[in-house]
Specification:
Length: 260
């Protein structure tokens, strides 16, 4: 479904991605891991066409989007949905209106058909009862599920999740993970999940790509992750912190971390 081929990305003198290569297969969940500054957010932005790679290619379902004109890229974007880290729901609209928005914008369906589709998407994420509520009236977990429903509005082949567990308690995180698995298993949805939560990785990952300072240091399975003796991987896996470990010490380092 997605092929990332030798992708590099620089912001001025900052090299964020260094020849990243990986693939997402149909019907699998790929988790993109890495510490702060590893490059995972930049990779996600490149995969959805929000920014362009400095070099290399990104092919989505057969279409090379790397240098594609914006009008053509917008057609490819209909093949995928994005659940943003903060949900990005419009607070002035009800949940149902948020989900209907891409249908109004990208299709010529009549209002009754759109209303039916909104209910179907809400049913898929167990939120039918919240159709007429505002985002501010929902819990954090419900907002995440509403964001997934909106991402599903155009029946995409691929879903991108940017830190879906951010700000959630462990029980709600588990519920979101089960939703990701349900969509994969019942709809053969292909998923790209950027996360740092090891418990979620163990529940949802079919394929893992781990980045460190813009380099791929692991491209394999959960078993590969758990067995790795690479200290960069084992430290991330266990969450152990070594006192005196290198940190951000300058403004330049801080800016580089933000860009990644």
């Amino acid at each position: 479904m997605i092929e990332v081929d030798n992708v590099t990305k620089s912001f001025g003198d900052f090299v964020v991605l260094r020849g990243v290569t990986c693939q997402l297969r149909r019907g699998e969940t790929m988790c993109v891991l890495g510490g702060s500054g590893g490059g995972k957010s930049t990779l996600l932005k490149i995969m959805i066409g929000a920014i362009r790679p400095t070099s290399g290619r990104v092919i989505i379902d057969g279409d090379d989007i790397s240098r594609m004109p914006e009008a053509q890229l917008n057609k490819v974007r209909r093949k995928f949905g994005v659940m943003f880290q903060g949900g990005a729901l419009l607070n002035s609209m009800t949940v149902g209106e948020n989900i209907a928005l891409p249908l109004h914008y990208h299709t010529k369906l009549d209002a009754d058909t759109i209303g039916t589709m909104v209910k179907i998407k809400l049913q898929q994420v167990d939120l039918l009862h919240a159709e007429h509520r505002l985002p501010a009236e929902l819990s954090g977990g419900m907002q995440k599920r509403a964001a997934v429903a909106r991402a599903l509005a155009l029946d995409p082949k691929i879903l991108f999740y940017d830190e879906p567990s951010a700000g959630l308690d462990p029980i709600t995180t588990t519920r979101v993970d089960f939703l990701i698995n349900k969509l994969r298993d019942r709809m053969r949805m292909s998923n790209v999940v950027v996360t740092h939560v090891m418990e979620s990785v163990q529940r949802i990952a079919d394929h893992i790509v781990m980045l460190d300072k813009g380099n791929v240091i692991l491209d394999g399975t959960l078993a590969d992750l758990m067995a790795s003796e690479d200290p960069r991987i084992s430290t991330f896996r266990t969450g152990e912190y070594a006192e005196g470990a290198e940190g951000i010490t300058s403004t330049a380092d801080y800016m580089k971390d933000l860009l990644m």
